[in-house]
Design a protein that fits this description.
With about 200 residues, the chain is mostly helical. The chain has helices spanning about 10-30, 35-40, 55-65, 80-110, 120-140, 145-155, 155-165, 170-180, 180-200. The chain has nine helices and no strands.
């Protein structure tokens, strides 16, 4: 899915769109919920450079998974820290699904109007795919991914604390899941289900 090939010129903008939309959504919802930390840290922006993590980007190209720079938040600034943390966590994946839907709609409109060039078609296709992949991948319940934050808000405090303690080992667990192809086993059915719902709609 990632890596270096002749399609890289079309995949890079799609990847940056998915990554930027995801992180911007986290920042926007955090500010909306009363925490201005993302704004003060320069993360309330659609500039992809502000969201890039160099090591995470290298991992993305080399190992087919990676990460952006996490948006800093202070849950103490939320009126309801549990609700605020939950909404911020799901904002990224939800924004990616919306972005995928927008890419699919734009593709259909331009194709119908016969204004779809080969290059633009590839960018839109990759934008669609990457956004769904980002949405599903980030909902894996391993820290520091969004899915773990959602799960921590659902679990009893004792179990949530146990999940949080896994965080230092999470990158290695994720790498192992990628190397043994477990990630694709997890992502594929959800990818297909979301695609079915978006196309059907």
């Amino acid at each position: 899915m990632f890596g270096f090939d002749e399609n890289m010129i079309f995949r890079i903008p799609a990847l940056l769109i998915a990554l930027t939309i995801h992180e911007y959504a986290h920042a926007r919802v955090a500010v909306w919920m009363g925490d201005n930390t993302p704004k003060m840290m320069g993360r309330l922006t659609l500039n992809p450079i502000s969201h890039l993590d160099p090591f995470g980007l290298i991992m993305l190209w080399l190992f087919k998974f990676g990460w952006a720079k996490p948006v800093p938040i202070n849950p103490n600034n939320f009126e309801n820290w549990r609700k605020g943390t939950l909404l911020v966590a799901i904002a990224g994946p939800v924004s990616n699904v919306i972005m995928a839907l927008m890419a699919a709609i734009l593709y259909a409109i331009l194709a119908k109007m016969q204004l779809l060039s080969t290059g633009l078609a590839m960018v839109l296709n990759f934008t669609y795919s990457y956004n769904i992949i980002f949405a599903v991948f980030n909902m894996i319940p391993l820290p520091p991914l969004d899915g773990s934050k959602v799960l921590m808000n659902i679990l009893p405090t004792r179990h949530a604390y146990m999940l949080e303690k896994i965080e230092p080992y999470a990158p290695f667990i994720l790498m192992a899941l990628v190397l043994f192809n477990v990630i694709h086993v997890f992502i594929t059915p959800f990818y297909n289900a979301i695609s079915f719902l978006l196309i059907k709609s």
